[in-house]
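Why does residue order matter? Because the sequence determines the fold. Keep that principle in mind as you read this record.
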Amino acid sequence: MKILVTYNLPRTPFNNLPADWELTFPQNEEMPREEIIRLLPEYDVLLTIFHSHSPMDREIIDAGKRLRLISNYGVGYNNIDTAYAREKGIAVTNTPRSVCNPTAELAMALMLALARRVAECDRRIRTEKESLWGTMKNLGASLENKTLGIVGMGNIGKNVARKAEAFGMRVIYYNRRTEVSGYRRVPLDTLLQEADFVSLHTPLTTETRHLIGARELSLMKPTAMLINTARGAVIDETALADALRQKRIAGAALDVFENEPHVTDVLYRLDNVVLTPHVGTGTIDTRIAMAEEALANIRNFFQGTPTNVVN
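Structure:
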């Protein structure tokens, strides 16, 4: 069985694989699109990454003459035309378990960094030095006794909820379909009006694209803060930049962006924004665990017991 890996991944999980598995890795960080199309006709499996700059579209899928499985390295799979893959009889899998806790950790880290102005103070103390100090300067917001609104109460959302409760936060949530016991489910507009912090954990679909736009931002409290570790296009980034610039909401912490790796330029210049380069799963432990889960999906598929199939 031949597996084409499109991105540079930790090699440890690839040790001790079956002898008849032949793997090809990129020479650099990411395999160029034209090389994927050139090589793919000889491969049975495509192991690709969630934030690949080469979307797995019809052209690439059509190149996979022998392709039976696309094993996606990540929980989000909007980089893959899953419907067309299904038409071609190609399964698509993802890695939902290994990404859950690290993404929730980062959501809390961003929330704390934003609320306590950690990134801003770090930047300013390097230039303002002693003048930055003062009892009534640099005041942030506490998490305790505040309301956290979670949009998308799946595995990651529930993990964030448990962590937030440890900080003494009240948790409300919005889900389109599923009820989650132990927390108050509210309509999206109600969540936006009540929450002191809003954390996004919904997949990117046609229904959730620009779920948070100018109208939704106008419903939030002027003291409220928005955290996004889901997908960038869940937010209308231009509308958010405008709301932050005019201080219609207090701040935002973003790990994902609408047109990655491009970031709306205004956001770079605002002190009420914390920015990270899509590092929700960015620990070495998680990178290894994701590769192990992606490889388990391949093994299970060819053993006739497929796991984490999304199409």
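Residues 301 and 307 are 7 Å apart (CA to CA).
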